Amino acid sequence: MTFYILKRCLLFIPTLLGITLITFILMQSLPGDPVQGMVGERASPETLVRIRAELGHDRSLPMQYIGYLKLLFTGELGRSYYTNRKIAEDLYQKFPNTLKLALTAMLFASVVGIGIGTFAAVKRDSIWDRLVTLISVGGISIPVFWLGLTLMLIFAFYIPLLPPSGMGDGSLINIILPATTLGTFSLSYIARVTRSSMLESLSQPYINSARAKGLPEMEVVLKHALKNSLIPVITLIGLDLGSYLNGAVLTETIFGWDGIGQYALEGIMKRDYPVIMGVVLFGSIIFITMNLLVDISYQFLDPRVRVKK
Amino acid sequence: MQFTLISKTFDANIPAVIAALLLVLLAFTAIVGPAFIHYRPDAVDLNQLKQPPNKEHLLGTDSKGRDILSRLVYGSRISLSVGIIASSLSMCIGIFFGLISGYFGGKVDMILSQIFDIFLAFPSLLLAIGISTVMPPGLTSAMLAITLVGWAGFARLVRGITLSLKEQTYIEASRALGASSARILYKHVLPNALPLLFVAGSLRVGGFILLEAALSFLGLGIQPPAPSWGSMISLNRAYINSAPWMVIFPGLAISITVMSFNILGDFFRDKFDPKMQA
Question: Would the CB atoms of A280 and B121 count as touching at under 8 Å?
Fold first, then answer.
């Protein structure tokens, strides 16, 4: 098993490099001077010369890429065209907010998703089951940004219950709408997977034994079937957490949430290329790191996988 | 009699029937809809700004006085064409590289698989943003971005199918008879991959449409005044409190369209490949 972990980590590296390569190519394709793309418009001529030398702008493209990698290795993501602040610093500051939002959204999605998925499995083929299926299909079909706006309309304007936007003073009430919006997509997938996983578990022979033993149905379902159904759900949760980076761009925009998603949008609006590329790279690295962690944890979670290996 | 024909085709699955009908309606709207619409989608009427749905404007007007219904109808062309063209393109590219990777194996497979993984390593929206930023925003940049986001998923799928089909006896027999690789791939592997591809495609069109909507919402895809549903939402979202219909209707259009594709895709998946995961 340790061998598998090592192997997976090794395979991680070329993918990581590949991401930086594609980002580098994109940055080279940007209109304008790519060195400015790294350094920002307000940089002094000295900085320009220095970065140009480091990037080896007079050198061939592959050498420039190496230079880019060296800079990345030191955690240097460049500076914003507009604010001239270091992008890495901005990301460092804003990422915790996105993380808070993502974790809350995931909590919401898991609890509700597993709940209604289990419910649908238990009440199979009933009207509740069909309703849950309908909701889950709907949940993955609704554009995140529209869902956010609609929820805002209902719960912040028509029924003045929740604040429409902003992070406020950090109190919980501000996170409700954005987290619900962000989490709905995952909720739907989690519900579906929970349902099919539960259906499979519930058809296992040991469930019959449990029932024959005289255990209350609630205990049979929750203590036995659910625990064993959770493995695919947990993998899904891990993967979805990584993809919240997508949803975050849209959700944070709607709700004025100061995270890396909104940072990306500001960059897009102002054509602040260093910021855009910085967020793309940063987000992708987080994404594949999450995927790697999920992959590895799967080894621990599902003993069957271990035996097969 | 037609009723029994339809029921048989759809296994009396009511949501699937409704979804199919909705999509037919949508296709109809996209193709001939504009002929029935009185207002031009870019016709600005400064006397009718932000009007709620009324007799003259069935779905109301937007912040620039344009009729929303006509913008929705013209916008259906954009959303559908981007969704379908981008998914077809990414499917073609994916099939091409997936077949090569799966069939030839070895070093080619190793390199191509790594490339697939790299493209799949980006969160889709972030990659789409990155790609559309390097060129002037518009239809081309949106299509290119969506295609580049989607192709690797199809490639990996086709590679898997090819790998499993490669060992079949009839493939070996063809090779023994002297058939070229291209011929084998085209005549034997590909036809067997089609049902699964069809399912995968129909399940992903919805995602591509959502991606296009997100891009135009962010200002990166179809540019105003072109009536892309996503940009309709972003343009009018400042007025959500005072004139919510301007935002609600485009969003409903997107949701219903994507939902229909998803329901149909689910139905095809259940029919053609019960083994496939949700």
Answer: no
